[in-house]
Amino acid sequence: MVLLRYVLPGAVVLGGLIVMSLGGESELEGGAAIVSAGLAIFFINWLFRAGVAGESERDREDQAREYFDRHGRWPD
What is the pLDDT averaged over residues 20-38? Predict the structure, then answer.
């Protein structure tokens, strides 16, 4: 997972920076697009992890509500 979360976006960004350093205006624009793609990969991964974390919080809340229904008090 580390490969997908950090290495892949880092490699894409690094590739974009290398393309940007090659010279003219078209390389600069193309490299910027590649860097943007690398950042998009990173942030999509981050958004997915944030969504999954929200699911676990909802699961804990549901478990607490079930406990409350059974015992009549909120769990500590």
Answer: 94
